Amino acid sequence: MKRIFLALSFTLIICVSCNNSSEKKEQASINNQNTEKTIKQLEIHFSFKTSETDVFKIAMNNIKVDELQRKHIQIFETVSPSIDFDNIIAKFDKNNMSKNIVFGLGNKKNKEVTIKSINVFFNFKNLNINTPEKMSKFLKFNKFIQRDSTSMILKTNIIDGKHSPSFTLTKKLINKLNKD
Asked: Which of 34, 103, 152, 155 is the most exposed place for a label (fewest CB within 10 A)?
């Protein structure tokens, strides 16, 4: 009888200690998930309409890999004219950030692009560029884009036989996102 009691007690002790260690493992995995969420990741939501079919891109250039290396990441999407707004969602790898983020509006034809909004998410921060004033403050346009500062409409132009319309996020915006 004592042997049965001892065997049952021993089995019960082993079961209880195994449950405690699995709870600790579960708690450790939750902490790891919380730590993982603090890793900086850039996400851009670009909402727009275009008058012509073309290939738009969002690119991050000159990402520092180490002392000697830099890399570039480009996200391409073929877009078509429509009555509704189209969306490009660009998710860049964790811990990749650059001071050079470029939006390319294609180079096939002249076009009119109406921007509804550009939402930039980084490190739990969000900036929504959804007014002409914010466009003027946070975006820099190259010479192939003509824009009226009172609207969200961009018109692309061919200059000297070249057509490469693009705009970038300003350093002011990127510095604002990088502040801790």
From this structure: 34
Give residues with Cβ within 8 angstroms of 42, minimum separation 6: 60, 91, 92, 96, 97, 101, 120, 121, 122, 177
**Which among 134, 103, 120 is positioned nearest to 45, based on CA atoms?**
120
User: What local confidence, expressed as pLDDT, does residue 13 receive?
Assistant: 60
Distance of CA 58 to the CA centre of its chain: 10
- How far apart (Å, rounded) are the C-alpha atoms in residues 171 and 98? 10
Cα separation of 176 and 28, whole Å? 33
Rounded-to-integer distance, Cα 48 and Cα 90, Å: 14
**pLDDT value at position 3?**
59
For 115: left if phi > 0, alpha if psi spans -120 to 50, otherwise beta; the answer is: beta
**Rounded to an integer, what distance in angstroms lies between the CA atom of residue 58 and that of residue 73?**
8
Residues of the chain with pLDDT under 50: 22-37
Please name the residues in contact with 113: beta carbons below 8 A apart, sequence gap of 6 or more: 48, 49, 50, 51, 105, 153, 154, 155, 156
Cα 120 from Cα 129, distance rounded (Å): 8
Q: Specify the pTM.
A: 0.75
Number of neighbouring beta carbons within 10 Å of residue 55: 13
Q: What's the confidence (pLDDT) of residue 28?
A: 41
